[in-house]
Amino acid sequence: MSPARRCSRTACGRPAVMTLTYVYADQTAVLGPLATYAEPHAYDLCREHSERLSAPRGWEVLRLATAAAVDPGPSTDDLLALADAVREAARPTPAPPRPTAEEGTRETHRKGHLRVLTTD
Prior knowledge:
It contains two helices and six strands; from the N terminus they run βββαβαββ.
């Protein structure tokens, strides 16, 4: 749960745990787990407001099953993939072969990766 994501209800400062979206064509309010990022047409709700949610007459409230309240954290596969990526990034890469001057040119000056070549 991100500390920056708060309940969308006015004057409520509790952290958001659920996201509410509307499907107007089906007259359905869908309440599910907190979305991975805030969307302009969705509402983030705290636990209290998500439990008390009601829909207009004739509308259906669809409550999607949520994962346990306790965040299980990253899986071992995630941790191994992260470790492999760190190892790969830390592995030194061989320097590319230095290009040789073309026939009839010579290098007169070098600064970093830039070279000044003159023709003979």
